[in-house]
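ugh ok fine here u go
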Amino acid sequence: MNREALILGVGATPFGRHLDRSAGDLAGQAAHEALRDAGLAPADVGAVFHATVSQKAIDGQHMIPGQVALRPHGFAGVPVVNVENACAGGATALWLAIAHVRAGLSDVALAVGVDKLVCADPAQGLAVFDGAMDVAHREETLAALAALTDPLPPELLVDGDRSVFMEIYASLARAHMQRFGTTEAHLAAVSAKNHAHSVHNPRAHFRRAFTAEEVLAARRVAWPLTVPMCSPVSDGAAAAVVTRADFIRDESAVAVLSSVLLSGTDRAADDTGRHIGRRAALAAYEKAGIGPQEVDVAEVHDATAFGEIQQVENLGFCPVGDGGPWSASGAGALGGTVPVNPSGGLESRGHPVSATGLAQVFELVTQLRGRAGERQVPDARIAIAENGGGLYGIEEAVAAVTVLGRTG
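structure:
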């Protein structure tokens, strides 16, 4: 069976520092907001797909985190499936909820993603990301990435403790710069654009605008990346209610045109056509019966500004290698050819890992309903979300691409 699936309701907490709240509190808030938005109650839900990493890595809740987080909020008796897929956990929970409904197993499924990564010891939150790569071959992987480009001169090296994934993104950014001529100014343009978008998003972790010059002058994390070019460590939760198209008639429902989840493959670094993000995008377009020229608005996984440059290429908004100039031209800004990350993206909205993919969907559903206020993309009808997770070899370990369409 392959029934049409709809997203009937969405919910999200503000992202930021929530030291006084538990993961369960945040998950429950997002879940109930999504159900209220859908006009449903917990008793209407046939299955829950719950994504988290922090409940395991930080709280020590290695098993049944979804049951522990959600039963106090009225989700008892139904199947609760626990999901972990690095930074693509939320998108994976949504993919499972969509598949569940399309298979006819339930009329209604709920996807929830939550993480609390802000800790009294910042190193504890950053350490969670260390497990998103092959830990048995960590040094070999980092050495292989570093070998993609010429060694950095001593004056560009950064001392002190650093996030391993910022180092990974920096290596990939340098390889793109060396091969295609991408510049620091291109990265700064992406970052400044996303921070400008976040000013209009009340749920964003940071809502401060930066000029490109301020982005370039900020503290360096790992060359060529500065602090405003990188996603912060955040707490937060997001959720989505998925139903069959014939379950309820509601003009605010959004159609799931396609939902694709892939893992990576072994490929040469210069074989960009087989990049996991490109393969996922092509599969999603084919299933949706559209092309990139029909997309009105996008949310992509900009864990760093370079991530957005890479993904606008993978999504076909511009040729491979042109992501930097395309972004610097303003094509991805509100009012541009294809507005990208009107929410502010991970760089500003924040990145509570397992909540990120569902936060992207929250934004796109809001856009397709025409309810995004000052960050609204006029007459948005087709939206796409790209959410990546982890690293295996030279690319993400997992990629999820979801295409959504307005029904009303």
